Amino acid sequence: MRTLRLLSSAPPTALFGMTVIALYALVVILAPWIAPHGQTEIVGLEFEPWGGDYVLGTDNLGRDMLSRMIYGIRNSVTIALLTTLLSFALGSVLGLLAATLGGWIDQVLSRLVDVLMAIPAILFALLLLTITGTGIAQMIAIIAVLEATRVFRLTRATAMNVSVMDFVEAARLRGEGTGWIIRREILPNITSPLIAEFGLRFCFVFLAISALSFLGLGIQPPTADLGAMVRDNAALITFGDMVPLLPAAAIALLTIAVNFVVDWMLHRASGLKS
Amino acid sequence: MADTLLSIRDLRLEGRAERGWVPILKGVDLDLKRGEVLGLIGESGAGKSTLGLAAMGYVRDGTRFAGGSVTFDGRDLLKLSPRERRRLRGNRIAYVAQSAAASFNPAHRLIDQYSEGPVIHGVMSKAQAEADARELYAKMRLPDPDRIGFRYPHQVSGGQLQRAMTAMAMASRPDLIVFDEPTTALDVTTQIEVLGAIRDIVAEFDTAAIYITHDLAVVAQMADRIKVIRHGEEVEEAPTREMLAAPREDYTRSLWAVREFRADPAPAPAPDEKPVLSVSHVTASYRTGPAVLQDVTFDIHPGRTLAVVGESGSGKSTAARVITGLLPPDGGEIRLGGEVLPPRLADRSREQLRRVQMIYQMADTALNPRQTLREIVGRPARFYRGLRGRDLDRDIRQLLEDVELDPDEFIDRYPGELSGGQKQRVGILRALAARPDVIICDEVTSALDQIVADGILRLLKRLQVEHGLSYMFITHDIATVRAIADHVVVMQNGHVVEQGPKAEMFAPPHAAYTDLLLSSVPEMDPDWLTRRRGEMRA
């Protein structure tokens, strides 16, 4: 009932965003059932046109483009989600510790984050991937750490605002441990900015992974992936074919949808009426 | 009437709530002659600030006019265009807010902010405005009036800032000034200077004023007439002396009566009775800077109330931080029931922590907005006393009943669903749930209205008797000290200036500072300010 009322108060952009996110979620979950062919299966000739047996034609190796798209969304979104979760686990826990404990722990963590943030993230990621070698696990770990710095900053700043409140002091005076203060006193008061940040971070992670895959450093062939698919079919653009734009559009659409929803949530959390 | 400056008729105003619009002002009339000062009093939420702003034709966000008229000098402000209204404001009508510190722009010098209004309205050139500012600063008796304007807001004290704000409001010689609680945030010794300065300057320029406050004694000094507001409606209105002498309505009488609460003082402790908490020769300082506490010594006896009084910055809150272990002292020791307390919070045992609890000034920030009363009150009971399940539930309900909050109605509410007074009760409960020996009350009533504050003081006194509690009552309000203290400690600049039983402290002879503090507390007598200033000059 409350959810319904909440939804009815959402602006059209947010409704659009939520619909798109829901569709992507369905695609991710149901990919094996809705894709007409396997993601690595070669079903026809190279670069077959749209229509006929293959709704979106085939790619540079003769694989069904529609199936590749569906699996590409599944793979890219899942990996981005995993990476975001990891970066949150890292960034928010350390941020909360820094804000609650203060002192040298805060100093060490904050300076470390400053150093990491001083280097452009994508360059840093490229550098590290060159050192560690390419692979999904390495990419997830590297992007998670780099994005965690942003999460750390936000968590620390919002938690600082709460940790100076009298109710936190009251908990300290009561003799509560750090764990309780973080979980019960601070965390419930910073969840809404953190949830919004999760949406934004997801977008950045999604874009970063796609970019790395496009450069050939992320998800490795033959696994379908939106970034790599843009590159694989890039040659077509010179013939005026818009196929390479499809995976790019799939990336853009999800990013925009998430942003719409996050905007609405931030707006609600800030308490502004108009 | 020819000399009527402002005339409000049947003014109705609504505010946005969860469901639709609810009335805030329900048809208020108000008349103000040129040069007249009207005092507007009532509890918070009564609508007095809203009425004050409406007198300028202004509504806050989330509120709207629903009817009536506001006629200023023959023109209905509600019918003017926003542009015309803006031209009147700051020019012929001015406003002085409660917190001057929050109303000044910290990035600009006082005098630049002073001249902004007159220059924009085209009344004066910048140079004229600055010369004028110096003159008004002098009239407001600001120190060094020729140069004080060239300082930034953070470089002058709160009382000076409030006077600079009043001078600024006077810049374009308005016909009407609305003062919204201009001295509420100030210490009594500062308040008296600001009140005097405001009264003189309003009289000198023959400015009409609406003076909003919840402090009756203050309004008695300032206003020619008093209007009492409650729930958005007028209770009564009469000339000041008439109303003070013979209030007609029960509600007004109850406002008058609250200051008269006196708890029966507990008998003086026997000479051999051990104090429950003793602070001896404590010196403390923050990481940088000079000592904020110097050789502070006092005892709290079982079942008694020790009041610690002083202005802001006197070290009274620091004393509480040292006792609770938040600030380890540089020297001296604190004993609880005879045993020495470890200086650092982290080194104290749970049992030691349980015995000293704290109640905060701002119940809004002292209660976690994301926890229900069950969690807030239940946690100490569980943490210190190991209560679980049904025992815990019974204990929470018993506690809520103790402070007259119906458990069935309140137990699962969040702090946001409570009134200010109810929140403070919950703050008391959280301390009480630990079954402490000593409760430190840090300005617990100063954010509350007098009637609500009175209720809290009575509650604290009752709980003290029922549970044998000792209080350390930190306050700058002498009326609170009179009401509840057994023993008084007066602090100034980190030193204990004087201490003793209440009866002795309120009877002369006093230390010079105690005398200043006591004599600065406004009295209900409308001639008090005049008399007091005469004495100060002499």
Automatic annotation (TrEMBL), chain A:
Membrane topology, from the record: Multi-pass membrane protein
A GO CC annotation given for this chain: plasma membrane
Limits of the ABC transmembrane type-1 domain: 73-266
Keyword terms: Cell membrane, Membrane, Transmembrane, Transmembrane helix, Transport
Signal peptide bounds: none
GO BP annotation list: transmembrane transport
Transmembrane segments annotated in the record for this chain: 14-35, 77-105, 117-146, 198-219, 245-266
Pfam families per the UniProt record, alphabetical: BPD_transp_1, OppC_N
Compartments, record wording: Cell membrane
Principal cellular location given in the protein's record: membrane
Domain of life: Bacteria
Gene3D superfamilies with a match to the protein in the record: MetI-like (1.10.3720.10)
Family label: Belongs to the binding-protein-dependent transport system permease family.
Protein name: Glutathione transport system permease protein GsiD
Source organism of the structure: Jannaschia rubra
Taxonomic placement: Bacteria, Pseudomonadati, Pseudomonadota, Alphaproteobacteria, Rhodobacterales
TrEMBL record, chain B:
SUPFAM superfamilies recorded: P-loop containing nucleoside triphosphate hydrolases
Membrane topology: Peripheral membrane protein
Location, primary (coarse class): membrane
Domain of life: Bacteria
ABC transporter domain sequence ranges: 6-256, 277-518
Gene Ontology CC entries for this record: plasma membrane
GO BP of this protein: peptide transport
Keyword vocabulary terms for this entry: ATP-binding, Cell membrane, Hydrolase, Membrane, Nucleotide-binding, Transport
Known EC number: 3.6.3.-
InterPro entries: AAA+_ATPase, ABC_Ni/Peptide_Import, ABC_transporter-like_ATP-bd, ABC_transporter-like_CS, Oligopep_ABC_C, P-loop_NTPase
Enzyme type, top EC level: hydrolase
UniProt cross-references to CDD domains, sorted A to Z: ABC_NikE_OppD_transporters
Pfam families, alphabetized: ABC_tran (PF00005), oligo_HPY (PF08352)
Protein family (similarity comment): Belongs to the ABC transporter superfamily.
Protein name: Glutathione import ATP-binding protein GsiA
Gene name of this polypeptide: gsiA_2
